[in-house]
Amino acid sequence: MTPPDWNALAERLTGALDLAAAPVAITFSAAPPAGVPRFAEPMSAPSADGRQGRVPSSCVFWMRGATSTFSTVPEDHGNCSIGRVTHGLATLEEIAANDDAAELLGSGWVTARDTAGLPSVAGRPGAVTYGPLGETPPGVRPDVVLLRVNGHQLMVLSDTIPGLLIGGKPQCHIVALAKEQRLPAASVGCALSRVRTGMPPEEMTCALPAADLEALVAAVERTAATNSTVAAYAASDARRFPS
Asked: pTM here?
């Protein structure tokens, strides 16, 4: 099967939504793809409970992936226990004794029931590759396309996708939903991720299943055009009122 033209889809999606950050392709695989550079930043010093990672949490890789393409391996994601679970890199049992999991549970930020229902990537991947969708390397077929959006852009996506799932914490669960259940899903963000990624207060995220991207992009374009028509009418109609 001929792969989609990822660059063309990235340009169309960026244009239709007026995205400020490039759509990020996320690819799960058994091993790092050939020819894709490894994420090169050094491993952190270990925490008191032994957690280490190359970034504070997996969602930080989303931010870096908007500007460069790289592959990661499970140990690169080792600092954020919840992110390891949603990305299929650890089980709840394996992270239960970690300090960060205890803090999240002890503070009431999440409950044991919340964590038991967390979506997660299946199959214990050996690598996760990130990069701008438009620069997807040959031979790499993304699983998920991650968008960083504002309220207006999320409105267009919600208009396009009836019943779009819009959730909150942990933000990274939307990646698993898009990959494993083929469900487009958005997140208003979470306190943990916003601190670690530096996401602006007005920014949110949306994960799209890459397998459905061609149809989704075409639908987004239609919705954006319709919204522009309605917005132009509203602006014209508003001229009857004092400023």
From this structure: 0.95
